[in-house]
Known about the structure:
Mean pLDDT: 87
Largest sheet: 5 strands, antiparallel
Order of helices and strands: HEHEEEEEEEE
Low-confidence stretches: none
Helix content: 10-25%
Shape: elongated
Strand content: 35-45%
Number of helices: 2
Amino acid sequence: MKLLSGLLVSILILCFSAEALARQEVTFNINLKPQLEDSVFIPGRDQIRLVGSLQPINTARPYYLTDTEPIDSVYSVTINFPTRFRNQTLVYNFEMTINYRKLTEDLERQVLLRQGEVELDALYFNAFAW
């Protein structure tokens, strides 16, 4: 019995660790330098979040971007996507809440999800070239 339970535990650990290694990790970046310079976006009051077409970013839980290095004006968030979305196209956008008013980018952005880690370029909010 001990051997069987030990074998089951080993199989479960192997399955969960393989699933964790196979995830697609994407770091989304956006450069808010123009909005910060014009005082349109005020850190601490305003927020920027990621919205998209696949789980987990299409759920009710919001994913807010933060500025980890305040001197570069780049806000980031890293999302782990399940393996079932590998080779699928994620359609996403950034949404700003400025003084309780929502601003959404006019055009959608896209990224093909592949295995491994990806860091997307820090383009400007509502930029038309990506």
